[in-house]
């Protein structure tokens, strides 16, 4: 299967151009057609010689994604279900924020980390996305706005869709370099956030990449017992190991870290737990933020429910009393299955149900008992 040209950094496009005995300015032209003019085919790159267009078609596809479903929410959130070349499904979400358009991208088909509250973790990882498939999500959302002539630009990216980004490390790094390239989409590194469930050794690698991208760590519990029971990754990288890696990241990059904390009613949202969380993060108080996130109910995980507003308020107050930088995060697109992995898992479920119904109907027609 041909790779998508979106998966190449500008340097890699230049290398390809030189390998094909062309002058390096051709790479700049290709890059601008891709990310400034945002063409839909190589044929539209009208200042390239026909032989080079043929060669591009020979070696690459442009867009590897097919749009299956688009849902728009009342608050402006748009959810896209895309089909990959091998028929697998992924989802991408566009959120309208007061500071601009923010896209949440998927990095893997399914996720092997298997957190107990997450819809994505219900389906084991089937494969990593290629760098081209990750970049293409941004391009398709941008083109969706281009087509409506809304003159709006995707200005922020959160790598918080399906999958564990640091478990698809190289492709995610290439993706970051492509979208950040100042001659292309030029999305500022400080406007990009990568979220991880806490792969400690990869956090240390990430610190040494020299990119100014923000790091978010999904913490969700202030001690090992609780964290291991809701996120099994904690058995591999317990809190002490995780925090050593985070401190190393802060020292190496001089950047702050955001902690994400989903509020699960009567599971992790007690005032004592808020105190434990404040104590745990004390050493890096000035260099960390905590986002308190409303839980998005997932039908398969009915052991969890959303914390009551009173419990959230008490938790927040205790953190504030300890001088913690924290916010209660706003929600987007709750009317359109916007929880991480939900549109995909619900569509797969519907597809399975439709398939089952078809088989049953066919059997009934053929007189076979179900
Ligand atoms: N795998 C990475 C990034 C994708 S998940 C990670 O875990 O950080 C992005 C964020 O969504 C994580 O903080 C995750 O814990 C959170 N999340 C998962 N399921 C959720 C749900 N049902 N409700 C609210 N947040 C959820
Ligand atoms: Fe994977 Fe993140 Fe979901 Fe955990 S929360 S299962 S790491 S996508």
TrEMBL record:
This protein's record includes keyword Lipid biosynthesis: no
Gene3D superfamilies in the record: 1.10.150.530, Aldolase class I
UniProt keywords, alphabetically: 4Fe-4S, Cytoplasm, Disulfide bond, Iron, Iron-sulfur, Metal-binding, Methyltransferase, rRNA processing, S-adenosyl-L-methionine, Transferase, tRNA processing
Necessary cofactors: [4Fe-4S] cluster
Subcellular location: Cytoplasm
Annotated [4Fe-4S] cluster binding sites: 111, 115, 118
Annotated active site: 91, 340
Enzyme Commission numbers on file: 2.1.1.192
Catalytic activity: adenosine(2503) in 23S rRNA + 2 reduced [2Fe-2S]-[ferredoxin] + 2 S-adenosyl-L-methionine = 2-methyladenosine(2503) in 23S rRNA + 5'-deoxyadenosine + L-methionine + 2 oxidized [2Fe-2S]-[ferredoxin] + S-adenosyl-L-homocysteine; adenosine(37) in tRNA + 2 reduced [2Fe-2S]-[ferredoxin] + 2 S-adenosyl-L-methionine = 2-methyladenosine(37) in tRNA + 5'-deoxyadenosine + L-methionine + 2 oxidized [2Fe-2S]-[ferredoxin] + S-adenosyl-L-homocysteine
Main location: cytoplasm
Function of the protein: Specifically methylates position 2 of adenine 2503 in 23S rRNA and position 2 of adenine 37 in tRNAs.
Family recorded in the similarity comment: Belongs to the radical SAM superfamily. RlmN family.
HAMAP family cross-referenced by the UniProt entry: RNA_methyltr_RlmN
Name assigned to this protein: Probable dual-specificity RNA methyltransferase RlmN
Protein source organism: Streptococcus oriscaviae
Gene name for this UniProt entry: rlmN
């Amino acid at each position: 299967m041909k790779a998508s040209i979106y998966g190449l950094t500008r340097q890699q496009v230049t290398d390809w151009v030189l390998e094909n005995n062309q002058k390096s300015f051709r790479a700049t032209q290709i890059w601008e057609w891709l990310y400034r003019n945002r063409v839909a085919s190589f044929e539209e790159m009208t200042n390239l010689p026909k032989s080079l267009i043929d060669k591009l078609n020979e070696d690459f596809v442009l867009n590897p994604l097919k749009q299956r479903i688009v849902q728009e929410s009342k608050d402006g959130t748009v959810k896209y279900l895309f089909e990959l070349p091998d028929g697998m499904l992924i989802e991408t979400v566009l959120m309208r924020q007061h500071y601009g358009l923010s896209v949440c991208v998927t990095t893997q088909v399914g996720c092997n980390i298997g957190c107990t509250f997450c819809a994505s973790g219900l389906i084991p990882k089937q494969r990593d996305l290629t760098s081209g498939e990750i970049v293409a999500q941004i391009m398709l959302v941008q083109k969706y706005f281009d087509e409506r002539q809304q003159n709006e630009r995707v200005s922020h990216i959160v790598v918080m869709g399906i999958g564990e980004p640091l478990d698809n490390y190289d492709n995610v790094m290439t993706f970051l370099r492509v979208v950040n390239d100042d001659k292309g989409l030029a999305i500022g590194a400080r406007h990009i956030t990568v979220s991880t469930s806490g792969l400690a050794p990869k956090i240390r690698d990430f610190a040494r990449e020299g990119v100014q991208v923000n790091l978010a760590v999904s913490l969700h519990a202030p001690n090992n017992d609780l964290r291991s029971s809701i996120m099994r990754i904690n058995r591999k990288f317990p809190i002490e190991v995780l925090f050593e890696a985070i401190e190393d990241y802060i020292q190496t990059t001089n950047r702050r870290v955001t902690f994400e904390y989903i509020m699960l009613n009567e599971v992790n949202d007690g005032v004592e737990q808020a105190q434990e969380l404040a104590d745990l993060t004390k050493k890096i108080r000035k260099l960390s933020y905590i986002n308190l996130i409303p839980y998005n109910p997932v039908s398969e995980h009915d052991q969890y429910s959303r914390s009551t507003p009173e419990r959230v308020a008490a938790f927040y107050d205790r953190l504030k009393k300890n001088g913690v930088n924290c916010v209660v995060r706003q929600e987007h697109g709750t009317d359109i299955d916007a929880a991480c992995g939900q549109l995909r898992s619900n569509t797969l479920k519907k597809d399975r149900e439709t398939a089952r119904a078809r088989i049953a109907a066919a059997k009934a027609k053929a007189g076979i008992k179900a």
